[in-house]
Amino acid sequence: MLFANSANASLLGVSKAELEGRTTQQLLDEKIFSNSVILEVIRQKKQISKISYNYHTRLTVLATATPIFDDVGNVKYVFNNVRDITALNELQNSLKSKDTIIQQQSRQLESMRIRLGEGTIIANSKAFNEVITLAQRVAAFDGATVLILGESGTGKEIISELIVNNSPRKDWPYLQVNCGAIPENLIESELFGYEKGAFTGADNKGHKGLFEAANGGTVFLDEIGDLPLHMQVKLLRVLQQKKVTRVGGTEPIALDVRVIAATNRNLEQMVREGTFREDLYYRLNVVSIFIPPLRERREDIIPLINHFLMVENQKYHTNKSIYSDTIDAFEGYCWPGNVRELENLLENLVITTPGDIIRRENLPLKLRRPQQVSAEEEEETVSLKSVVERAEYAAIERAIEKYGSIRKAAAALDVNPSTITRKMQLYKDMSSRKQNK
């Protein structure tokens, strides 16, 4: 090598003096780099570009070598231009990895679907599959009351439907009511019915209540935690006696009804506070099913995106898809509204995004930036956050140093390469902000 500039030496991780006067084969033998474009140019006598890996700096470079000929057509010199493409290469691998994941998820989507009467359950995560397994097992015991717990939007209604569709009562009535949506003065007559003339404005033929209308089938009492205390007493009596008496009536009506209740509230705490009856709580809680929030089962996010996109594309006769580097924003968001929030957002994006590809810039701001905390929360948690961030960054640095690339480090740490890239950038941005304060 006749001459090497400092930039080239820096990319190779050696000094200029170690390069100049040495042959390319010597540098190859000493494993300075993985292959040589210069030797190829000498053999083929034409300009060649080649990707090479530098062992000292662990960088991936694109080398373009151009031959310079003498008067008789022999290669006299070779001019070699080297560019660092590590970041580009890692980004490409990350996008390929993400595209592969999306394709695999799409192929697996059919096997994840559990079809119901009105909806579909997408189950990829271990946590949600355990919920489904328990619901299917409970379904066969059609006399047992079931209490479904979980945050708003996690899918309590659809788990109730899954239980019904797998139970001996699946061909009998299935009636649902939101206990928090009925005015307090009407809830008794809605649940238990009324006789003619029971109150001013009552139908002169009387009226069947929800329980009587669902006789032989299932009643789903959503938001059971919103049921007023005086109605809790009456519901308990119905569950214990398996009989209902209409408002204004005297004759009890025998019932054969399965009850499934659901709430996003902490009933145990309500029992301690005296706002929910303890005896009713234990009567409802024969079998409880807890549905974890979406932030605790992130493996379901990509399959859910694929499913909702398919549904919305069919609904609006569109052909929208999500750009692969946008998926990270969905996976990094905390989803306080759970599956319902994700579904509503996908419908919004299908409607509002121009063109057929949904990109990061089309997402609402809350998905495009890290989750914010209040000043009080930040002051309380900054020390712990700082420790966690430093530990993550140190682990990432060690893995990259040990394995030589972001892709291999990601495999060792059991995360996506894009996750490492994002965390490194977030740490650098935070460090930069601290220095500028």
TrEMBL record:
Q: Where is the PAS domain?
A: 1-29
Could you tell me which SMART domains the record lists for this protein? AAA (SM00382)
Classify the source by domain of life.
Bacteria
Presence of keyword Hydrolase = no
This chain belongs to the protein called HTH-type transcriptional regulatory protein TyrR
Indicate the segments forming the Sigma-54 factor interaction domain, all copies: 121-351
Q: Which PROSITE patterns match?
A: PAC, PAS, SIGMA54_INTERACT_1, SIGMA54_INTERACT_2, SIGMA54_INTERACT_3, SIGMA54_INTERACT_4
Sequence ranges assigned to domain PAC in this UniProt record: 44-97
A Pfam family that the UniProt record links to this protein: Sigma54_activat
From the UniProt record, give one GO term of the biological process aspect. regulation of DNA-templated transcription
Single GO molecular function: DNA binding
| InterPro entries documented for this protein | AAA+_ATPase (IPR003593), AAA_lid_NorR (IPR058031), Homeodomain-like_sf (IPR009057), HTH_TyrR (IPR030828), P-loop_NTPase (IPR027417), PAS (IPR000014), PAS-assoc_C (IPR000700), PAS-like_dom_sf (IPR035965)
For this UniProt record, the keywords arranged alphabetically read as follows: Aromatic hydrocarbons catabolism, ATP-binding, DNA-binding, Nucleotide-binding, Transcription, Transcription regulation
Look up keyword tRNA processing and say if it applies: no
